[in-house]
């Protein structure tokens, strides 16, 4: 279910190898993702979870044919280093897919930080990220970084991900998809505010931080369609130069 909003936006999740063939696949995501929601007793025998720091050297027992990274976003500071590790851990002809986005919220009705708590919150989040030397738009230049790591970029797509029912989606799913994505963004606001209010304590009082968080979440959950809130997501697929292995999509 967590993948469904992205599946509807991009037709398929993920752009994986042929599902009828046997490949070694690595799914990389943040700690609060599917790993924490899965009952390992229900997993197939050829699937396992590993908790590891992806910003350190990878010490997996075997190479992968396909590596999928979803919504890593600001969890990684050094994307070039991560892509070099990814390249080293792929078999020749293997593919990496990165589904990621920007820490930025836009409103079609012209709302700005001056009259929108949600947009104000995202502007403050950029200040917080800058204090930790993390670029809010680090996903924007991934194709160039993939090429520098040795990959051949075979797909790069930009998606306008609306926080309200999208006419592009099947009619039966529109409301559900929008509600799920709004909740995802609201959860990001809740989770990051705890850290932002510490590092940016001089900007507002504790009471003002509480009010900002509450109003930002309310706007996201209740006013997204009225304001036309949307974010930017990217899908990037790249291949390690083929030295004999033929991966079919």
From TrEMBL:
Top-rank taxon: Eukaryota
Biological processes per GO annotation: methylation
Protein name as it appears in the record: S-adenosyl-L-methionine-dependent methyltransferase
Matches recorded under Gene3D superfamilies: Vaccinia Virus protein VP39
Keyword Disulfide bond listed: no
Molecular function as annotated in GO: methyltransferase activity
Species annotation: Penicillium cosmopolitanum
Name of one Pfam family that matches: Methyltransf_23
Keywords, ordered alphabetically: Methyltransferase, Transferase
Keyword match Methyltransferase: yes
């Amino acid at each position: 279910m967590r993948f469904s909003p992205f599946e509807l936006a991009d037709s398929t999740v993920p752009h994986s190898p042929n599902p009828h063939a046997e490949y070694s696949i690595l799914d990389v995501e943040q700690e609060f993702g599917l790993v924490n929601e899965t009952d390992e007793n229900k997993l197939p025998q050829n699937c396992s979870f590993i908790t590891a720091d992806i910003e350190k050297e990878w010490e997996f027992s075997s190479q992968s044919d396909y590596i999928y990274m979803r919504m890593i976003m600001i969890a990684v500071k050094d994307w070039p280093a991560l892509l070099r590790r990814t390249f080293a851990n792929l078999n020749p002809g293997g593919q990496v897919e990165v589904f990621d986005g920007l820490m930025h919220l836009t409103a079609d009705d012209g709302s700005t930080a001056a009259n929108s708590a949600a947009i104000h919150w995202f502007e403050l989040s950029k200040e917080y990220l800058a204090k930790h030397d993390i670029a809010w738009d680090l996903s924007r230049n991934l194709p160039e970084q993939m090429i520098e790591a040795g990959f051949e970029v075979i797909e790069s797509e930009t998606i306008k991900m609306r926080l309200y029912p999208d006419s592009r989606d099947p009619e039966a799913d529109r409301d559900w998809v929008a509600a799920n994505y709004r909740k995802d963004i609201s959860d990001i606001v809740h989770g990051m505010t705890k850290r932002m209010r510490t590092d940016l304590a001089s900007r507002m009082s504790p009471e003002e931080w509480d009010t900002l968080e509450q109003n930002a979440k309310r706007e996201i959950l209740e006013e997204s369609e009225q304001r036309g809130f949307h974010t930017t997501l990217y899908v990037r697929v790249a291949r390690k130069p083929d030295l004999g292995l033929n991966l079919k999509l």
